[in-house]
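Ticket #325: bound-state structure for NAX.
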Amino acid sequence: MKPAVRIAITGAAGNIGYAAAFRISSGEMLGKDQPVILQLIEIEPALEALKGVEMELLDCAFPLLEEIITTADLSVGFKDVDYALLIGSKPRTKGMERSDLLNDNGKIFGPQGRAINDHASRDVKVLVIGNPANTNALIAMSNAPDLSSAQFTSMMRLDHNRALNQLALKTDTPVSDITRLTVWGNHSLTQYPDINHCSIGGESATSLVDMSWYRESFLSKVQKRGAEIINARGASSAASAASAAIDHMRAWVFGTPDDDWTSMGIASTGDYGISEELMFSFPVRCKNGDYEVVRGLDMNDFSQEMIQKTEKELLEEREAVIHLL
Ligand code: NAX
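RESOLUTION: The complex was predicted; output attached.
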């Protein structure tokens, strides 16, 4: 057996954390031969609920789950972690301005970034899920000066998977036949699900679907899928978000297939003209635990316009939290 790796999950008593912890413990994220130690982090008032999650995890008798640590202390929770899933965040309440939401969450992700900087493994891989995920990831990254900015990512994989599903439904194709899809930009309504380079069973997606369907129906369906789920379920996406987090980490650790890529929020280094110092979703290929932006894709006028719109929103978010960076 390999030595155990340490995985921190913040907001572990919440809906997404609850769904993720069991799948991670059963080996679905890092493999059936990889023992894990879970370091579950919550705020003080949720520690009792977290105890319940711990009891259930223990009751599963997962062979790969070596130890569980539950804590509200960031220096304990992030100690020596190899992976960190930052899920816990402050939800938007009625009448709350977006700038207040950004600020309140900034106050969570700044200290978490510092604690990761000070206590985590030097090779830690961080995935931010708590919304507004891209800007929260930017804040965490900016507060971890001793680590590489490439170690911080934000989750766009749920949007990517939602887009795959819509295309599969429309073309009556299995999702496994669809490759090279990208969701660009922010995890928000301005995200740009792009099928211009996408292949479905070896044929170009744009030749298989009607472009008016793509622009008038598909884009908003993917962008607004979260709201559609809240309306139906009375609660926001949880199991699908946890599943996407596992897909994101698996791709990062084990790589993407040679003929495919995935969508990840990463620190921009100027690719496709996107401002640096933004956490922006690009098409990325992963290999040997690293990732690289897929460069050189043709961007038509519509795509340019769409990525500029989502970049603008991220620049505004950045401006609202500039004092926290
Ligand atoms: P829940 O409200 O069920 O759980 C959040 C948990 O985080 C709670 O248990 C709370 O006590 C804890 N928490 C709050 N502040 C914390 C802190 N400072 N440290 C540690 N724990 C803290 O929300 P859930 O449905 O699990 O969603 C979590 C976050 O994911 C939300 O911000 C949500 O908007 C976001 N999402 C992001 C998605 C993405 O694709 N990036 C999709 C799904 C989801 O909407």
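RESOLUTION NOTES: The two ends are 41 Å apart (CA to CA).
TICKET STATUS: resolved
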